[in-house]
Amino acid sequence: MASSLAERRAGRLFVSPTVLTLLVLGAFPLLFILAAAFTDSSLGKPFKEFTGADNLATVLGNADVVASLSRTVGYAVGTTAASVVLGVVVATAVHQAVRSGAVVRTLLLLPLIVPPVVVGTLFKLIFNPAGGLLATVLGFVGIPAPAPLSDPGLALGAVMVADIWEWTPLVFILVFAALLGQDPSITEAARMDGAHGWKLFAAVTLPAIAGTIAAAAFIRLVLALKVFDLVYIMTAGGPGQSTTTTSYLIHQVALKEFDIGRASAITLLLAVVVTLVTLPAAGLAARLRRKEEATA
Amino acid sequence: MKTLELDRGAPPATVAVTGGAGGPGTSPDAPGAPRRRRGRPAWAVTVVVLALAATLVPLAYLLSVSLMGRDETVSGILFTTSPRFSNWADVVVGTDLPRSIANSVVAALGGAALSLAFGLPGAWAIVRYRSGGRGLAGLVTSPWLLPPIVAVVPLFTLLRILGLNDTLLGLTLVYALLNVPIAVWLLEGFVRKLPPDVFEAAALDGAGPWRTLGLVVVPLMVPALVAVGTITAILNYNEFLLATFITQSPESQTAPVALSLFYGDRTPHFGKIAAASVMVIVPVFAVATFLQRWMVDGLTSGVGK
Amino acid sequence: MSSSRSGQTPRRSVLAGAVLASAALVLSACGSSQASESTPESFEGQELSVLLITSHEGASKWLADEFQKKTGAIIKPTIVPYDEIGSTLALDQQSGANKFDVAAPWYVSIGDLAADDSIKDLTDWIEESDQDTADFIPAIYDPYTLVDGKRYGVPFDGDTHVLFYNKEILERNGFDAPPATWDEYVEQSKTITENESSDGVYGAAVFGQKSPLILGASYANRLAGFGGEFVDAEGKPTINTPEAVAAAENLVESVKYAFPTAAETDFGVGNGAWFDAKVGFIENWTDLGVGSEINDDSKVAGKWGVATLPVGGAQTEARASLVAGFTWVVAENTEKEELAKEFIKWAASSEVNEALLTAEPATGIDPNRQSSLESASYGSSYPALQEANRATLAGTLAWPTGRNANQAAQILTDELAKLLAGQGGSAQETMDRIQSEWERILG
Fold first, then answer.
1. For an engineered disulfide with C356, which of A209, B136, B188, C365 has Cβ 3.0 to 4.6 Å away?
2. What ipTM was predicted for this assembly?
3. What angle do CA B78, B79, B84 make, to 5 degrees?
């Protein structure tokens, strides 16, 4: 469709707030981070002198920084996998059991609207070895109180539980909406052909909602890769380095050590990792979309 | 009829909210739809019950702790026999909490409304007039990928230039900008599903881009605007990191910031921390319960009705 | 843009400082008594924006009320978490928002704040204004204010740790005196935990959360006791000496028998356990004793004792550890410099410190002055605290405060957290790593 001059002009005007946003929140911080990453920059005095790749070399040579990156990826992949599986299972179950289920769905969405600061507080209370929910319930059956947030082997998993609790409803609602949006005649037709139960789900439903699932996974992945609030409230990155995610580390370096240069260098590394990790999910979503369009 | 549309430009822009239209007249949960007739599979009921338990038990525990005395919170009980509603009163009366909740609501709703106002014309023009080309469509979500921590420093300077440091207006503006990418990205999907004949009719009537946007697009997009607005408002209400640095004084502080200060006490009272948390989530629960129906309708039927 | 601006600022401020200093000299030569007499009225109705940490909220109310009574000026406190005050002030000044006139940050951050031009050099003013600096507890005064020969603040909150013990718990377990050495402390703590942990009572609460003011404090207490130093007189790191390693080893042992769990024990958890009479020992600020008596939640009123921190190794004399401690500073870009200085001079004065020590509700402020420490009011209200606090009069252990001190404290904290979590190898390896990092950034 050919746009008229008036339309092109209006269009430019219409996208200008979006472009402005990209400049203010995308380009401006990116330039700042790039400039800071290659200079000696402190919190109160950025860009003191050009230091080349010194900051990058320092952070790449720091085993704790590198470990935080792989920890963050593991955390993100783990929480995403769990959220997607649980979200799809619960959405399918709700769809099968109660259809639109306004009440059920309202209740299931509640964690989404609890601020992470509260979620962190809540799970800290639950995991508190001295009288928390978990310790008390396990105490009833005679299991000694665990201290998940202080155990180097369990702490990251415990934060993941809180994260999964909070964000799985997002996957749930997106998948649930896709299920409601399915064309009922297609499932009916498949059922006529004798498909039911798992087979019906795998052959008809899953392909129909695969694009939605991939997109939800992408959103979930980005949220998990940036996790900060939960770590800040629940563990302060401990015990040891067990829950020091890269976002938490950046916060610490920038605002507690006053070293904006090093913090920016770590941010660049994280940006590269986020891109590498999310590309497959984004690519998968795009491929599924094309496939759906071809079959539609 | 299309079963599912994920007709998006950029790879990351493939989002579920574009999930297929129910088709004119068929509200997804309309009574009498054929699939209603089947029974409820046992596995599904079990999963729903488990999911509800996993969702609600922690919230119930929070409520329970909010009524406990300070020593009870560490004594290994699940609920107190002598509930202390005084905890609730203590965190509300004479504290900055009520104002911080009001601040949060203002910043969340104001920010969401501005995001929509900025984002809808953008989404409309990107889809309809291909403004900005593939580049813009592809770049739209990129700011969202960057962790926002270091951005605090340039944002602070920006707010200083505007004279809006430590003000609710400044925070609202930051939230508005922060969510424009998300809003554009989500709204794009809805715009694509607008029936083209409506605009051709509008064009035949001689309506220009502005009138088409104002008189045709906006009314058709109301469900989508509510859905996307709800999502962005929730993101705003939950935001913590930027708020801690942008708002410090009680006049502008948001609820998550006020809550985090409860930890600073040398002898924090878990009962009162829980009570404050309850106070912070109750208003959003009330609003969300009301809005979620709109949100789901917006997500599912989009503008297909 | 920003770089050229910050490039110019120092020169300009040096110039401005010189002008101000000479002006001040002229003024003081003309007779300072006249100037100070005219001040009370001139501040009437003026506002002063003061940045404080959460645990100083109570003190801020007292200070605001009293200062307004005295001068008519209105104090507007802004309260932030204790670990955000330095960065909040730096961001405020760097961005040019300049909301704050005065702040009371952790003394360890004054070097970084000074290097970033976030706070004013107060050297000349302190010398010229009559502040009776000789009365500041000497072991506090220099570490809290001095960086590279210049003074950037005046001490506010003394904040040294002492050892509190629950008399009932010790008696139940057969101990009639608190431990004199850190080894005895571990021994007693172990006994209590083994005897009573099934009832939820443990030997000690050990602050172990990964934060310089929390875990860092626990280590500093032991380092002081074993006679170690963070850095030597020339500022060279000495953090892998035998004393420093012994302190780390004792920390590992202490944590083993601590209230569960040390890694999660921040101020709140630890103090809560103490007030609930669930722990035998806690290392804490002296004001915990005030809270133990008057706090509504306290179950230990009248049942506690306080001693100086234990010692270890060759060290035989009690030695105070300046773990926290907060200093009044003036923001670099304030437009209310006179009022700001008037306020901090008053707030750091002997009379105000003495009044804050025993004010109710408790303010959490510890002595910063010899006269307030030895005051009759403090002595009659809290004789045991007064006695324990006298340790600050002798040799004390203080954190390094120069440039990169924040980072140094964070490195120490991170490495100790790894040691406690079993991720850092031996204590010697841990301290060697810290030493080499510190040599790089502090050297």
1. C365
2. 0.89
3. 145
